[in-house]
């Protein structure tokens, strides 16, 4: 199968491309800087600067992971627009590719797995969150809503659409742990604010497996929560991480400090959702790392 990936050079995308190659698939990657990302990807990947560059070799499946990192900078109005536009533009490019393929009478991809995030639900307090939960209207929700909406037109072309709302991605060398590990290794870690906010998380290998599962299962469409079945609060997360590092977690960061330092972006750290992968589990997906203890043991 020929699979086109946006965001292939990212933390999840790199592992995904590697898995696709190992499974014998032909991998196409869209990157604005093909030469710069070449060293991060398997040598067999065909890397081009736009989705339309693959018009002569149409993909059988699309995986859409592209987007500006959400926690890289404070959320100025300019940065908010950049976060939204980077996701929407990449998604629209895939829809345009499919429209062009149909106009040319060429075969269309059978499926697209398109990214979204736990931010779709906004702050949900302590309630259990499934794919049916009504969102709380705030910036993270509006970002994900527009991202998901950009993919919807592809269904009218006859392409199956599965949307994956991912939690915090855990693995060595990147993701959520990249910024958390240094202070925790020094014994300087602690909860954020009250620590009562939930942190839905997922091991990178399970996330990649979920993407491949959605590609393979022809009857699956709509939104899916991409997180482990046992989310934890921030207090539990920090305590568990410190325990695996044999360090204390006795330096909490007060909410007012985070708000002063990060502004509106501090909501990523101070709010959350008890998000459960209800539809993935109902479809028969099995997590290799269902608990935080098991995930951190494998990573650390």
Can you walk me through this structure?
This protein has 300 residues and is of the alpha/beta class. The protein is built from twelve helices and 13 strands. The strands form four sheets. The chain has a seven-stranded parallel β-sheet, with helices on both faces. Strands 6-13 form a two-stranded parallel ribbon. α1 links the parallel β1 and β2. α1 packs across α7, α3 packs parallel to α4 and α8 runs parallel beside α12. The radius of gyration is 19 Å and the shape is globular. The model has no long low-confidence stretch (mean pLDDT 96).
Q: What Rg, in angstroms, do the CA atoms define? A: 19 Å
What's the total number of strands? Answer: 13
What gap, in angstroms, lies between the N and C termini?
34 Å
- The SSE string, one letter per element, is EHEHEEHEEHHEEHEEHEEHHHEHH
Strand content: 15-25%
Q: Please estimate the helix content.
A: 40-55%
Please tell me what the overall shape is.
Answer: globular
Biggest pleated-sheet summary: 7 strands, parallel
Class derived from helix and strand content: alpha/beta
Looking across the biggest beta sheet, what order are the strands in? 3-2-1-4-5-7-11
Q: Uncertain segments of ≥5 residues (pLDDT<50)?
A: none
């Amino acid at each position: 199968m020929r699979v086109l990936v946006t965001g292939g050079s990212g933390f999840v995308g790199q592992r995904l491309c590697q898995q696709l190659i190992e499974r014998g698939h032909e991998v196409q990657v869209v990157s604005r800087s093909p030469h710069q990302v070449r060293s991060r990807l398997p040598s067999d990947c065909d890397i081009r600067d736009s989705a339309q560059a693959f018009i002569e070799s149409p993909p059988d499946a699309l995986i859409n992971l592209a987007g500006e990192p959400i926690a890289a900078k404070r959320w100025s109005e300019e940065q908010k627009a950049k976060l939204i536009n980077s996701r929407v533009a990449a998604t629209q490019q895939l829809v345009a590719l499919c429209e062009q393929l149909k106009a040319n009478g060429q075969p269309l991809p059978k499926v697209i797995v398109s990214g979204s995030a736990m931010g779709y639900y906004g702050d949900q307090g302590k309630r259990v969150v499934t794919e049916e939960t009504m969102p709380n209207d705030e910036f993270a929700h509006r970002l994900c809503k527009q991202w998901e909406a950009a993919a919807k037109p592809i269904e009218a072309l006859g392409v199956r659409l599965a949307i994956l709302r991912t939690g915090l991605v855990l693995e060595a060398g990147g993701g959520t742990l990249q910024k958390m590990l240094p202070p925790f290794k020094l014994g300087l870690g602690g909860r954020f604010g009250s620590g009562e906010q939930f942190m839905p998380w997922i091991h990178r290998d399970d996330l990649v497996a979920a993407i491949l599962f959605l590609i393979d299962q022809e009857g699956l469409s709509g939104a899916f929560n991409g997180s482990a079945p046992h989310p934890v609060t921030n207090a539990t997360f920090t305590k568990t991480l410190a325990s695996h590092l044999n360090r204390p977690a006795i330096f909490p960061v007060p909410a007012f400090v985070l708000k002063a330092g990060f502004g509106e972006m501090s909501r990523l750290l101070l709010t959350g959702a008890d998000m459960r992968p209800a539809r993935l589990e109902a479809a028969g997906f099995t997590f290799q790392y269902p608990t935080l203890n098991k995930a951190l043991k494998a990573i650390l």
